[in-house]
Specification:
The chain is α+β, with helices and mostly antiparallel strands. About 20% of the residues lie in helices and about 25% in strands. A hairpin with a 5-residue loop joins strand 15 and strand 16.
Length: about 325
Amino acid sequence: MGAGARRRPVPGGAGRTTGRRSPMSVRRLIGMETEYGIHAPNNPRASHVALSIELVNAYAAAVTEDGGAVAGTEWDYRSESPLVDARGWVLPRSAAHPSQLTDTGEALEGVSGGDPSPADVPVRATPRTASTASPADLSEGQEDSGDSEFHAPGSAHWRGDFFELREGQPQLLMNLVLTNGARLYVDHAHPEYSAPETIGAKRAVLYDVAGDVIVRRAVERLAREDGSPELLLYKNNTDGKSVSYGAHENYLVPREVPFDQLVAGLIPFFVTRQIICGAGRVGIGQRASRSGFQISQRADFFEEQVGLETTVRRPIINTRDEPHADATGIGACT
């Protein structure tokens, strides 16, 4: 994130004495990511993976129908380093949880929901990326790489409890790189919107709201598809049935800042801000087995303060050292 970022001097900073306290700068490179809860209420056997795939393709279809350009190229996972820990070591692949091995693109097979049956047709989807237009006001033009054209109205259609490929469409889009700098893609069993990096909290929130506009447009486009299920999206962190999914920020920080300092400064902020702006949830415990209201949707699912994992032993601060910038001088704290 944010290649070429530099530290900005703070007036009255270290080494200077002024007659008053200098305001703390909040000009930080920040990026926000949201996994949406997804549900087809009239199709209890529906695969959440398949629903997420269809949502991504529906957005591509909506852009195409409005005259925007959508082109796909293979998604390159080789630069990812999911097992490099910012605390100074590398986790052996043999010791890693399968969900951590995100540096290889794997085909999704058999994503139909419920128990397999002879009628089920496996959906094979190779991770893809595409440039597309954005409906949000924050979009910055339209570009077409011209690599492979996407044909509306989508590349799969609904068959009761699973999707099957349309004739002539050997692959499904799993990734869209949007012209506002964001990415819309399938992450495990959820659609995820990864906003572009911005300077300051206000713009980070604006781009996050732009993601809500984008996924709402995809739902509306899917609703016009004959035979498609009713689709509901939730901007939450748990389904109340033991499953939790993420929404997090990424902060760009100089690598020379001691990691222990980051932990000491950020954890109190992360755990107390729920009091001010937590959305809350009804139900206590991972399965909401006890009645009651709590101000944090996510608290029941955290097991560690700091850690490399994201889906097991969830930490408050993730230590995955995977800079998408100059790795020698810049790090990101997630």
